[in-house]
Each structure stands twice: as structure tokens, then as C-alpha cells.
Amino acid sequence: MKKVRVRFAPSPTGPLHIGGVRTALYNYLFAKQNGGDFLLRIEDTDQTRFVPGAEEYIIEAFQWLGIQFDEGVGIGGPFGPYKQSERKPMYKKYADQLIETGWAYYAFDTPEELDARRKEAEAQKKTFQYDATTRDGLCNSLSLSKEEVEQRLQSGAPYVIRFKYPANLDITVHDLIRGEVTINSNLLDDKVLYKSDGMPTYHLANIVDDHTMEISHVIRGEEWLPSAPLHVMLYKAFGWEAPNFAHLPLLLKPDGNGKLSKRDGDRLGFPVFPLQWKDPKSGEISSGYRESGYLPEAVINMLALLGWNPGTEQEMMDLDTLVKLFSIDKISKSGAKFDLEKAKWFNHQYIQIADDNLLLQHFEKVLALHNVKAEGEYVKMVMNMIKERVHFIPEFWEQSSYFFVAPTEYDPQAVKKRWKPGTAGHLCKMIEIIDSVQPFDKQVAHDKIMDYVQGNELNMGAIMNSFRIALVGAAKGPELFEIIAAIGVDETKNRVQKAIQVIEP
RNA sequence: GCUGGAUUCGUCUAGUGGCCCAGGACGUCAGGUUUUCAUCCUGAAGAUCGGGGGUUCGACUCCCCCAUCCAGUACCA
Asked: ipTM, 2 decimals?
């Protein structure tokens, strides 16, 4: 049995899409479950699409998520280099080998000529295809004489190397998720394997690398399914054993249909990228899960369940658990829509079970962002009082600001509902009562206030909520006497007086 | 257009011929807890299993046709 080796092979053309993260996650889970290796290979054969910073972004994203590679770019390993641009010299000989064995041929047609052919065909409602039926009419080593080919090659004329499909051959791809997928070679285009700029295309580089890196399973997005027959044929042409294939369903946009794209995220209010990304050219910023206040564990859990399930009703799973439970045959065949509400729920769950110290670090960062300095124990106490209310890290502030800073505004709706004529008088009286509890004890204070409220036949809801408005600025937050205990009696007095001044000028 | 893939509650999904007049989760709604908000608890609504034909004693599950959606169709990956 061959050792399990899988790879994640993005191209550095921009930030890593969340769908790509899921693909990587599934690869990781599969590798770890089978005691295999997981590698990162950068596929940068298209020099025109290279985006600076993209590679670093990819590495940082996986660091944040806690998904570790065993080999690859940034780590190294026995099968390096792991960046295709650095492997450039080795591809040519494989392309030549295919020419020698008759599986490929030189083509000298210019992009313009081919473009014209395509347009022409389109005008007749047909599709132009570079294949067995058209090869002879085009400019290549199959249609030209040997001497002519030789002469063109020697003169340095630009050329590409194309794969030569055998005519009318049924090619079957065995897919771990979809079963057998068969297509006839007559329907396939003689794909370019080697470009005129001296770089291989994805197809060649991918097969050569997967083979030389001893990849056992290719787990990738469904968008690759149509080119899988080519890959199968390439393995055959080289006489190599093909890896197992698994084509993952796509991640769809939450509304309507179609692949989740960069634009959808900011349009619908959720990140499409793990980390925030600033486009180096346009300066445009796309939000990231990390910056939006997601915990990596939540992102992983949510992503894992988009297209896979453990077969039980368990939903909360950390990385280690996922490694244990994952299985390719439980991956679904159809695309999954991203669900913001479910993501939110997951994040809330993970905030509740997060390690206190880790959460504290997040909380302290949020406070620093709002220029608040506070003593550690106090911050910790506040955090535990409010954390069950927060779904995303930045919400720590809106749920806790009044523990650090007195409110300057009072929610008009709450005021309208709870602040009645006479409220101010009662609040003053209550302040006196609270002040009389020496030393302050929240239970004693609570009981005394209750006596006052009942003794004066007041509306509990109204009076207590007006008190809350004065302290918090809104109708929210933990138990009132907890808040008083936290901020102190003096501060309580100040806030009540200020509220009366502002609300009843 | 052509080729391939997919199709179960709004969403993610369970379901591999009888246990399914379809189960769970998120969301929604209602009630409870909380003096408020959030949380939490309980309950409810919600899918004629895309449509139509078969096969079978019996189909969400097998076969065929149709429809719809998605992907691919580059010297991009």
C-alpha cells in the first residue's frame, strides 16, 4: 500500500478563497487520518497573473487556521523545490518525452490565428476545437513536413506543445466521490502542455509534480473534473500510475446560484477570505474571517460541514476530532451554499468554550483598540459576565463598554419606553438606599431596593430598567446589581445624576 | 451551443428497497427563564424527497426520459 501523500496547490494570483481553504482542509484531514503527508505546492506557471504577497498570504492563512503542512513552500522537504517556477527546467524533458513517444506535437499557430478560428466557428454556431479533425489544417508538426518543422524549431520560431488525443477513445476517470466519469476523446481539445514562454501549463506541471512528489490522492475542486480525463491520459502517456481522484463539490453563494466569488462576501456581509486582503494594485480591501472576529476553530468546523458530515448528529468538532471522523465517502456530491447564520452560531459556540486566557487576549486587544486601560482581574471578570452575549470578537466592546466608560448617549427607544415622569425622583431615592449599604453588598442592596419598589407599589420593570438605562445607556447587559458591584457605588451615583441631566433637561 | 456534474424542509444535511405520510442542525415562530438584552430551556411550523414514466408486493432509495441549476469549453489555474 502506497503511503498517503496529498497536496494543496494554489496559484498565487490573489488571496486564498474560502473554498480553497475547505479543499485544503479536506486534504489535511485525509492525510492526517491516514498517517500521510500534506504538502503545499505553489503553482505559479502563469507569470502574468502573479500577485505579490499572495504566497505569503496563503502561508499566513494556514498558520492562523492551525492547518500544518508537512512539506512544501516555506517548509522544505525531500521533494523540493515546491514552487513550480523553480522547477521550470525539469518540465521540458517531460514534454519532449511525449513528443518522442507520439503523445504530443509541436504547434506553431499564433494565438491570433486560433482566435480567428474560434470566432469564425462561433459565427457558424459551432465550436472550434484543436483536435484530430482539425490538426491537419493547422500549423503543427503533424501537418508540416519534417524539414519544415525542423527549420522552424531551429529558427527559434515560437511554438507550443500540445497533447495528441487518440481518436474516438472512451476515457474513464475513477472518482472517489462521483464514481466513474467517462468521456470520448473526440470531444476533447488538444490541450497545450508547454507554452511558448518556456513554461508548462497547469496540466503538464501538475501531473509531473504529482508524480515526482509521489502524490497518492488528488483532492481538488469540482471545476477540475472536466480536465481530469486529460490528466488520466497524461499518466497513461507517461506510463505512470495515476493517483486517486476526488472532486469536491463547489461552495456556492448564499443567494441565487453560482460559485462563491470575491464580490459576494462584502455584498452580503461575510468574509470570503480567511484573512483580510488588500489588493496591491487597486488598494481595495476585502474582509477576512480573522479580522471580522471569527475564531479559527469555528471557521474550520463550519467549513468542514459544508459538503461533508460525520454520519452522526455531532456538529461541534475540533481539528483532531475531524481527523478521526473524516471520510471521503461521506462527502456530498452537490454544491453547498454558504450560510452566514450558521457560521455565526458556530462562532458563538466556540467563544463560549474558548480558553479563558486566549479569550482574554482577544478582549484586551479590543479594549486597547478603544483606548481603554483596565486592571487584569477586572477585565477577566467583565469578560466572563458578558461573553455569552458575543458572537464575534469585536462585539466584546459593544457588550462591555459601559464597564469601562460611562454612557454618553441613551437609547431613545428604551428611554421612551421606560423613562416616565417621576423616574428621576425614584432613582435619586434608590441611590440613597444603595449608598446606605455600607460596605456595599449586592444582595443586601438588591433586597433593600426590592422593598422600596414594593413599598411604593412601583412598576418593577419600569423602575429597574430606567436604572439600567442610566448605568448602561441601553436596555441590555447582565444583572443590574452585578453591574453596580463592578463599577462601584460612586460611579453609579455619577451615572444616575448624569442620566437625569441629559434625559430631563 | 457542446460536454460533464448535480437535484431531500429557507440553508447545511441524514437516508444505499420496507424502520420514512422522511430524522438532525442553523434560521423562523410561540411559550418559559432573565427586572432588560443576549444566552439558555421547551414546543411548533417547515420537504407531495425537481417532474414524468417504468421495475417491484413495496422506491427518497434501482432504470429511462424531461426540466432546472452549476462547472468546463484559454499558450488561466
From this structure: 0.95
